[in-house]
């Protein structure tokens, strides 16, 4: 924009808690914010489609599909974000999550029963419950204290986020061989503020958001492998083929349960799944 757009940045929840970011944009406290849809599942339930198990094999695969669904006129824009009076500039799922635990090593599905596992909310709540565990909804910044106090026994999380949230000392074990979904993030702008800008600056923001998502996912995919190799203090349990198939069988039902629960509330859950599948197929079909 050659200096025509200027930003005043408030990191580390200075303007409000992570769960309140959408409301801060809607009320004009912030013009833009990083909104994690699963922190406000009552407002953005369909957006949880990107967080279900087995939806994407990498952050970049998920990002391409997710971003397409949030474009003006696309499914998630018309079904959710437009009603919230925000415009999505960037949309990206993180890398596929794993199950991390602090004191009990999980080597089979039955070991999950009764464990208190952090979820980000929304679709991940359903995933945790499907494994027999107790879902405890927490934002990322609250996890360190929860693990230290024993409020939770573990979390669905990626390796890349352990150091930033100071969790390495508390996490002892990880389950390998199965993906349990991922959380997604969006960078949104007040629709009124966006429309008040001249068209050339709107185009600048749209392009910047697209490029940011592409760069973000590439970083996530690359860094996840590096962090996993570096964190040798965390003991991995590699599920046998038979046990991994058992987990995938259970997790396979999560998508249908999620969609049905939304359909029962008058929300197009099955349609969201169908649109997601179409977008992922488009991504995979590209050379």
Radius of gyration: 19 Å
How far apart the termini lie comes to 33 Å
Uncertain regions: pLDDT < 50 for 5+ in a row? Answer: none
Architecture (CATH level 2) name of the largest domain: 3-Layer(aba) Sandwich
Strand ordering within the main sheet: 5-4-6-3-7-9
Written as H for each helix and E for each strand, in order along the chain, the element string is: HEHHEEEHEHEEEHHEHH
Major sheet: size, sense and barrel closure?
6 strands, mixed
CATH class of the largest domain: Alpha Beta
Q: Tally of extended strands?
A: 9
Number of helices: 9
Oligomer: single chain
State mean pLDDT (0 to 100 scale): 94
Shape: globular
**What structural category characterises the helix and strand content?**
alpha/beta
What is the helix fraction of residues, given as a range?
Answer: 40-55%
CATH superfamily of the largest domain: Bacterial extracellular solute-binding protein, family 7
Q: How would you explain this protein's 3D organization?
A:
With 287 residues, the protein is of the alpha/beta class. The protein has 2 domains: 18-94 and 182-226, 3-Layer(aba) Sandwich (D-Maltodextrin-Binding Protein, domain 2), CATH 3.40.190; 98-181 and 227-254, D-Maltodextrin-Binding Protein, domain 2 (3-Layer(aba) Sandwich), CATH 3.40.190. Helices cover 41% and strands 15% of the residues. Strands 5-4-6-3-7-9 form a 6-stranded mixed β-sheet, with helices on one face. A 3-stranded antiparallel β-sheet has the order 1-8-2. α4 (123-130) links the parallel β4 and β5. α2 packs antiparallel against α7 (199-230), α4 (123-130) packs across α8 and α8 crosses α9. The longest helix is centred in the C-terminal third of the chain and has 32 residues, at 199-230. The two termini are 33 Å apart. The mean pLDDT is 94.
